[in-house]
Design goal:
mainly beta; Neuraminidase; Thrombin, subunit H; four-stranded antiparallel sheet; 43% strand; glycoprotein; 6-blade_b-propeller_TolB-like; signal
């Protein structure tokens, strides 16, 4: 803590498709087993891996020709990737190029077996896949081997009521099944307890702006082990930290 300058750990050589470059990366996770970063290199339509060891100058391609947006990894090191053009989420073993569909895959739409622009994803210890189903303004839960999903947040069309979401993005689910979601166009982060029909606003929701209690299109979110919430405040070009009781 206290650093005023960041350190480049992947890319940093301008936008491009060389192995030492990235182009509009949209998500990243840490693979502790190999001490590497796995990155959704979105505009290059690929998922790449960069070692965290010092001296690393380029990445390696894990999966090519994929319209990726979100990434997740489960306890067994399966990699999950959302494809926002094919409207599906696939699970891959590292080294596997094809993967298995675990959510969506039935074209874009609002049926329970469909997704429409799935972006961020979260996978729990039971290999349940949660998806921010962006154009459907809902969060979907797909149990392992399910043929259709369950609406667990939103799904009441676009809006700013407590029962609604507007282009949801970043997603986190705690061990109780409580869902935290960046409700992007409503400039707020919402919490939906398991089984709830409506959520509560935990930060934001005070109109769009630059104040400490405001956002401008929040995208990603995550928690640290102390329970602090970090929100990528996309339109304000900053990351905010909140302590949530």
């Amino acid at each position: 803590m206290g650093d005023t300058n960041g350190q480049v750990v992947a890319g940093g050589n301008g936008e491009g498709n060389r192995l030492d470059q990235l182009n509009s990366p949209s998500d990243v996770l840490i693979d502790k087993e190999t001490d590497s970063l796995i990155i959704c290199d979105q505009t290059n339509r690929r998922v790449v891996r960069w070692s965290r060891r010092s001296g690393t100058t380029q990445g390696e391609i894990l999966i090519n020709n994929i319209e990726c947006w979100g990434l997740a990894m489960d306890d067994q090191r399966y990699l999950y990737i959302s494809d926002y053009v094919k409207h599906e989420v696939r699970r891959y073993q590292i080294g596997d190029k094809n993967g298995t569909i675990v959510a969506g895959g039935n074209g874009g739409g609002d049926g329970l077996n469909q997704l429409n622009d799935p972006i961020y994803i979260f996978v729990d210890q039971q290999q349940t896949v949660y998806v921010s189903d962006n154009y459907n303004h809902r969060v979907m839960k797909w149990n392992k081997d399910a043929k259709e999903g369950i609406i667990v947040a939103g799904g009441q069309r676009q809006g700013d009521a407590l029962t609604q979401l507007s282009y949801p993005q970043g997603l986190f689910v705690d061990t109780l099944g409580t869902i935290y979601v960046a409700d992007t166009w409503n400039d707020r982060v919402m919490r939906w307890p398991k089984g709830a029909k409506q959520g509560t606003v935990i930060v934001g929701g005070n109109g769009q702006g630059e104040g400490a209690n405001q956002f401008k299109c929040p995208h990603g979110l995550s928690f640290d082990r102390h329970g602090n919430l970090y929100v990528v405040d996309w339109g304000n070009h900053r990351v905010q930290r909140f302590s949530i009781e």
